[in-house]
Write a structure and sequence with these properties.
Radius of gyration: 26 Å
Oligomer: single chain
Largest sheet: 9 strands, antiparallel
Helix content: under 10%
Structural class: mainly beta
């Protein structure tokens, strides 16, 4: 009888001689996992200097709604004590506090003299004098708990309110302070509302995510598109078409009053991104949600009046909160899980335009000067963009080699001058205990618009690189297109994990 002894060997790394490996960042999905400071990340897989921004801190936990008024004043509605802030020329003041009975400002809209605020949880609409801050209850809407969105008619005499949880659209006679139901959807929430150029109202619902066109003249509503998701959160008109932000939530959380989970998903589905290149295709690496974020998948769709639907962008992890259109025809979308603002150009190019420390960008608006304004949650703040950044930087995510490693060369490909630095450590979160930023040793041309040099950061398990632009604005045309890091994992001893005798 033959006795056969089989030994199974296992090692956490290479048990024999190690070989050099490479980590490359070259696509939109690769770059978008990092952090851009006043830099743009494009769907062509490039990083370049972008728009600058200034931050106006507000003394509140989170901003939910925002209105950019005709005189350039920005009004921001908070989620505590019914607070509304006014921001002008970079300075902020508390315009009014409606009190604990109206804690959550769900929607804002204004005319030349009056700011109208709809509340969540109380179903009320308040009229606020923009000059004095004096507030008065305009109406309390029967059978409505949440006023999700507001829109004024062309004459400024009728205010429309999209509400939940009974899916009712109210028309409010401002002079008479009277409200009447003009349409009821077969859905629980009218979640978004837009008055189009022709006077029609475009309405997005939750929890069935249906897009309607409502004609105020004949009180008739027609369903235009049906999406496989939980909600249509925002709508913006682009020429004769419309861009909508849809979300599909996986679970209900308590950090915002989102509608309940849908009974069943039908309609136009978002194509989930997977590993690869351009956003909106099917090849984008999923981004990890920031701690505490709500789990959802958001998508942007272009909808023609005929009902034709085209997907423009999709998030594998995260959700959209708001939309706006600038004078150039670019759509900007605020995201609620990564603290980012995405830009979609008319040619369908997608950019990560802004990336801020706060987790949620809850509202966006384009100013008449061509700049962008956006408001954040987590920490209540309003950001105002400038047309040229005074500095620009890009920091990669922390690359995990899965074990102690020694670093070789780093090679970067650009169309101009940039400064590259690296740092290393042994903890997954960069910070205390990591090495300082250091430039590569003896950088030199490496062929094909590339340069390279030896990484001088000490050996470790994790490594980050940072790219800064010595020139920004019109003086810089440098675009980062690819970074490759070479490293050698430390050999690991072999371990016997099983002995089998046959």
């Amino acid at each position: 009888m033959a006795l056969v002894c089989s030994l199974l060997l296992w090692a956490s790394g290479d048990s024999g001689a190690g070989s050099t490996r490479a980590w490359t960042t070259a696509s939109y999905a690769d770059f978008d996992k990092g952090e851009a400071e006043d830099a743009l990340i494009t769907s062509d897989g490039e990083v370049m200097p972008g728009l600058g921004k200034t931050r106006v801190d507000l003394e509140t936990d989170a901003i939910w709604s925002m209105e950019y008024a005709s005189d350039g004043t920005i009004y921001a509605g908070a989620v505590a004590d019914g607070q509304i802030f006014a921001i002008r020329d970079g300075k902020q003041r508390k315009l009014v506090s409606l009190g604990e009975d109206s804690p959550w400002i769900g929607s804002l809209v204004s005319d030349d003299k009056t700011l109208y605020a709809g509340t969540l949880g109380t179903g009320a609409v308040h009229a606020i004098n923009r000059a004095t801050g004096k507030a008065a209850l305009l109406v309390h809407l029967a059978d409505a708990e949440h006023v999700w969105a507001l829109a004024l008619d062309a004459g400024g005499k009728t205010l429309y309110a999209a509400t939940g949880p009974e899916g009712k659209l109210f028309a409010i006679d401002i002079a008479k302070k009277q409200a009447r139901v003009v349409w009821t959807a077969e859905d629980k929430h009218l979640f978004s509302l837009l008055r189009a150029k022709d006077g029609a109202l475009w309405i997005g619902t939750a929890d069935e995510a249906i897009l309607y066109r409502f004609d105020p003249k004949d009180k008739n509503a027609r369903a235009i598109a049906d999406f496989a998701g939980t909600e249509i959160k925002a709508i913006v008109q682009v020429g004769d078409a419309f861009v909508v932000a849809t979300n599909d939530f996986e679970r209900q959380t308590t950090d915002s009053p989102s509608p309940p989970k849908p009974k069943g998903a039908t309609g136009e589905k978002a194509k989930p991104p997977a590993a690869g290149s351009k956003p909106g295709s099917e090849k984008e690496v999923p981004l990890p949600a920031r701690k505490g974020g709500k789990k959802a998948k958001g998508a942007l769709f272009r909808v023609e009046t005929s009902g034709t639907v085209e997907q423009l962008h999709a998030l594998a992890s995260g959700y959209f909160t708001s939309l706006t259109l600038d004078a150039d025809g670019d759509v900007f979308a605020g995201a609620g899980a990564q603290g980012r603002v995405y830009q979609v150009r008319p040619d369908r190019t997608v950019l990560t335009a802004f990336d801020v420390p706060e987790r949620q960008v809850n509202a966006v608006s384009a100013t008449r000067a061509g700049n962008l304004v956006f408001a954040t949650g987590d920490a209540g703040a309003v950001y105002l963009s400038t047309r040229a950044a005074s500095k620009a930087a890009y920091t990669s995510d922390a690359f995990d080699t899965k074990g102690p490693s020694r670093w070789g060369n780093i090679r970067w490909r650009t169309t101009g001058d940039v400064v590259v630095e690296t740092r290393s450590g042994n903890t997954s979160k960069p910070g205390a205990g990591w090495s300082a930023w250091q430039k590569p040793d003896r950088p030199q041309p490496s062929g094909g618009q590339a340069r390279g040099g030896a990484v001088v950061s000490p050996p470790g398990r994790y490594l980050q690189y940072r790219v800064t632009w010595p020139k920004v604005g019109a003086a810089s045309s440098a675009r980062l297109r690819e970074v490759t890091l070479y490293y050698l994992p430390q050999n690991q001893r072999a371990r016997v994990t099983e002995v089998a005798i046959k």
